[in-house]
Amino acid sequence: MTPEEKFMFDVEGYIVIKNVLTPAEVAELNALADEIFSEKKELADRRKSQVSLWGPPTQALLDHPKVMPYLLELLGPKFRADHDYCIFMTKGGRAGGLHGGEGDREPDHWYKYRDGVMRNGLTVCTFFLTHANTGDGGFACVPGSHKSNFVDSLPEEVRTFKRVPHYVVQPAVEAGDALIFTEALIHGTMPWTAEHERRALLYKFSPGHSSWAPTYYNPADYPTATEQQLRLMTPPSVGSRVNVVSK
């Protein structure tokens, strides 16, 4: 991460990385998604877990070379893949209100800084397969709330997007961009208003000693996994963690 990128993440709790996926990668992933969701679209909000099992293109996102340096900077050299899923939305879809933030209810949602080093609990990388202009909906957050001491004071009408004050932001993104954020950030999914479909793939990572998901990756489900991907699938452990390396 550049010094400016570190500054932005420390201040806001998230960062948009432009052009992580090439147009060819986006096209391949969209074609794969079309196969997975080949049935008639009847739901405005569709989710499916373990998109990494869809095939080599989604498995490769577990350790995408353009994302790994950011995760190493934010989580340290010993982290693990926790779980992954997708959120697809058509116009009118309402996926979920604002949530997250550091607190006792979610002990793995945290952000710390000491001696020039940032560290995070559960951390999310979202890959965008379609664009979201400002006002389209989709990912939204309260920048800087990963440092808030008043998380529970957020009004309910703001959490549910019945009122959208100036401090709630929906960043504009393009297909191929990735957005990394800490779960210590108050975030959620605004109702989708655009005519095109929202397509986002979410991969979540934890420090090597912790887990948010109640189950772990099964390496047997990934017969073509690389050595590094297998390391990322390691269950949480304090004593036997293994280093993840950037490609």
What would you say this structure looks like, in words?
The protein is of the alpha+beta class and about 250 residues long. Helix content is about 20%, strand content about 25%. It starts with a helix and ends in a 15-residue tail after the last helix.
Short key terms for the protein model shown above:
247 residues; 6-stranded antiparallel sheet; globular; alpha+beta; 3-stranded antiparallel sheet
SSE topology sketch:
Blueprint lengths: L2 H10 L1 E4 L5 H14 L8 E5 L6 H4 L8 H8 L3 E11 L6 E4 L11 E4 L2 E4 L2 E6 L9 E4 L14 H4 L18 E5 L4 E4 L7 E10 L19 H6 L15
Antiparallel strand pairs: 1-9, 2-3, 3-11, 4-10, 5-6, 7-9, 7-11, 8-10
Gist?
With 247 residues, this protein is an alpha+beta fold. The chain contains 6 helices and 11 strands.
